[in-house]
């Protein structure tokens, strides 16, 4: 009789067991119609795994949770030895199982979950996870430079668990420009996923062409409420008051949106849209036309200029991630489009890349709503530009112009917010 595995068909943690089962000739079946978020919340499921996580294996001797433990159990039931034949090989199998779980899978999840909206997206946390992942890929790559399999001369459970973990990375997150730095990992992964026992479970594997775009964290569903109660309407009073006639309630005009305090500032002679148009339309003689035009238009009473410097440049070790990070920042600044213009430079031809920028804001301070609502702001050091200082003014001009080299270094990219 087959053992029953509770998981969906897409669960890579379940794949570990399903592949191991193929190798050792044990029958394991996925429970039909498993629904994540529903089937794992039932009292029967919680009896098998009190924290409700998936997968769980039902055995004649009781349930098992934790995917590595399940895969080990199934691997021990069969004929083939997936654990190595000497104490040192057995230790190495365990070593690589732990390594792929704690150094690869854990970092992949730290990268993936925020991008899928299941955890808050924090650029420094992404940088840290990515650099930890690179470190583990480097170690794995070095080992695989001289070894076909992780341990010995044939597939062990270490290969099964590592490949299942890598599968998630290759399929969802790690683009070719990342993995190509680790050619032995690539060779290993593609060789294993094409072995018949792996292929039966994975099907045809395709590497992702892009990292998933950043989504805002998914909020837990709120219970439906008729109307929020205000402080001025304590429960009791609300109860005592007769209900408003429907018509009256419907006629209540929506409150006008409060004006942005920046709209209440004294008018400025600088028209931001004119500057943005000049910037966009200048194709030649940029210094003489656009940069000069900027300083002619600039109104230091109505606007202020700011240099920004990324605080965590050391973590900018991967070019496309650094560019994504800056791109995400500019997207999130959308809320300030009426009041701001910005240039962001990604500097250097080798990692770690430096990110520096120049921003023009309406008013004399960085607008409070921008500070409050765009979390990227606190990842940068902000310094007001003193335009009476010619060196600072020249630096600002160079940033507007994308001058290269900038401060002695090549530009990887320059992005504009307008
Ligand atoms: N360490 C566990 C991780 C299990 C896990 O995180 N499972 C996910 C699905 S892949 C889950 O059940 N998530 C639902 C939840 O966190 O409530 C294992 O390897 O089995």
Automatic annotation (TrEMBL):
Protein biosynthesis listed as a keyword: yes
Molecular function terms, GO-annotated: glutathione transferase activity; translation elongation factor activity
CDD domains attached to this UniProt entry: GST_C_EF1Bgamma_like (cd03181), GST_N_EF1Bgamma (cd03044)
Residue ranges of every copy of the GST C-terminal domain listed in the record: 86-214
UniProt xrefs under SUPFAM superfamilies: eEF1-gamma domain (SSF89942), GST C-terminal domain-like (SSF47616), Thioredoxin-like (SSF52833)
Bias-annotated ranges (Basic and acidic residues): 222-255
Swiss-Prot/TrEMBL keywords: Elongation factor, Protein biosynthesis
Domain EF-1-gamma C-terminal: 258-418
SMART domains: EF1G
N-terminal signal peptide: none
Pfam families registered for this protein in UniProt: EF1G, GST_C, GST_N
Protein biosynthesis in keyword set: yes
PROSITE patterns cross-referenced by the UniProt entry: EF1G_C (PS50040), GST_CTER (PS50405), GST_NTER (PS50404)
Lineage top rank: taxon: Eukaryota
Annotated stretches, region: Disordered: 210-266
Domain GST N-terminal: 1-82
Description of how the protein assembles with itself and partners: EF-1 is composed of four subunits: alpha, beta, delta, and gamma.
Function text: Probably plays a role in anchoring the complex to other cellular components.
PANTHER family with a match to the protein in the record: ELONGATION FACTOR 1-GAMMA 1-RELATED (PTHR44372), TRANSLATION ELONGATION FACTOR EF1B, GAMMA CHAIN (PTHR44372:SF10)
Protein's name in the database: Elongation factor 1-gamma
